[in-house]
Design a protein that fits this description.
Blueprint: H1 6-9, E1 13-14, E2 16-18, H2 23-32, E3 37-39, H3 47-54, H4 56-66, E4 72-77, E5 84-85, E6 95-100, H5 102-114, E7 122-128, H6 136-139, E8 150-156, E9 159-164, E10 169-176, E11 179-184, H7 222-226, E12 230-234, E13 239-242, E14 247-252, E15 257-264, H8 274-284, H9 290-306, H10 328-342
Parallel strand pairs: 1-12, 2-3, 5-9
Antiparallel strand pairs: 3-13, 4-6, 4-7, 7-8, 8-15, 9-14, 10-13, 10-15, 11-12, 11-14
Helix pairs in contact: 3-4
Pfam family, one: Cupin_8
Protein name: Cupin
InterPro entries: Cupin_8, JmjC_dom
């Protein structure tokens, strides 16, 4: 895999490395964090990490011993993709998604390592740890206090995943191999030149910039993004906290890589997804005449973004309905109302 242009990326700041005394200390740092940070060796004692340090095959044998006999969804890229799971020249995805058993997937990866098969990216992404494995999450656990995170495992060969962001907070733990993350604050989205928001490799809009060969003529504002960028280089056992909405470009640097990540939101689970609101606004607001768009911009500010005392102060408290702070019950009623409206 080609390396990033050292003249460009060597100037990026490094993500802060911190030490944590115990689970309570980690919890406090996660709650206070507004920027990414690294904890070296946080999960160094995991059995999966220890297996991977022996060899890639030992890590695969460990995972195979715990697997359930169910198919995995795996992405298979093309030999000429340089590990980049992205779009082709016609904006179709440059990889195929198939169902396969884990022994067959691992056999294909081993054949690539041995040079008996054509090298191409093989990538299993965001698999819930409990569904296809028996006891894997319990044996490789991390105390995250009172959070109830989604624990996912990512398995693959050398790969490049375009910069994207996630709504939840994320603690990414490198279990096997090495990873490089290149990160940008949430407000840099316009300088990353995002692609389509409905036709994406994995559900989130991605940067169209090739981080290994950036085209500054086509993407001049990427220079501004680089001025805010951070780099994190992680070994097996290290963990990286990615705060909600931070953009991150992810590279698997070895022939075999495994990542375990934990996602959680500090907001109630019954709240809606902001991306759904954006999609609906594109459907109903974006293409209105300028004067009407200005009106709805003011309405969004009034009811959503500012939402000050004057918004509802004149309405009796018991009659404010969804203008009151949302509860799980009120959110359910609003969701049902929206589903009926969208179904018309």
């Amino acid at each position: 895999m080609a390396e990033m242009d050292a003249g460009i990326f060597a100037a990026l700041s490094r993500v802060e490395v911190v030490t944590v005394a115990d689970a309570a200390d980690l919890d406090a740092r996660l709650r206070a964090a507004t920027r990414p940070f690294i904890v070296r060796g946080l999960v160094a004692d995991w059995p999966l990490v220890r297996a991977g340090r022996r060899s890639a095959q030992a890590a695969r044998d460990y995972l195979l011993a715990l697997r359930r006999d169910i198919p995995f969804t795996v992405s298979i890229g093309t030999p000429d993709s340089d590990g980049r799971l992205f779009y082709d020249a016609g904006m179709a995805l440059n990889f195929a998604t198939v169902q396969s058993r884990l022994p067959d997937i691992f056999a294909q990866i081993a054949a690539q390592e041995e040079g008996t098969a054509t090298s191409r990216p093989v990538y299993i992404g965001a698999v819930d740890m409990k569904t296809p494995f028996c006891g894997l999450q319990d044996a490789n656990a991390l105390d995250l206090g009172d959070r109830t995170p989604i624990a996912s495992i990512w398995i693959g060969t050398r790969s490049r995943i375009a910069a994207h962001n996630d709504v939840p907070d994320n603690l990414a733990c490198v279990a096997v191999g090495r990873r490089r993350f290149t990160l940008f604050p949430p407000d840099q989205f316009a300088n990353l030149y995002l692609g389509p928001i409905d036709h994406t490799p994995a559900g989130r809009a991605i940067s169209m910039v090739d981080f290994h060969r950036p085209d500054f003529a086509a993407h001049p504002r990427f220079c501004t993004a680089l001025g805010h960028g951070l780099v994190a280089e992680l070994e097996a056992g290290d963990a990286l906290h990615i705060p909600a909405l931070w953009w991150h470009h992810v590279e698997g640097l070895d022939a075999f890589n495994v990542l375990v990540n934990y996602w959680w939101r500090e907001t109630p689970r019954w709240l809606g997804q902001p991306q759904d609101a954006l999609n609906h606004a594109i459907l109903s607001v974006r293409d209105l005449p300028a004067g009407q768009k200005a009106y709805w911009r003011a309405m969004f500010d009034h009811y959503v973004f500012e939402n000050g005392p004057d918004t509802v102060g004149h309405i009796p408290e018991q009659a404010r309905s969804i203008l009151s702070p949302l509860t799980a019950e009120a959110a359910g009623r609003l969701r049902a109302f929206l589903l009926r409206a969208l179904g018309r």
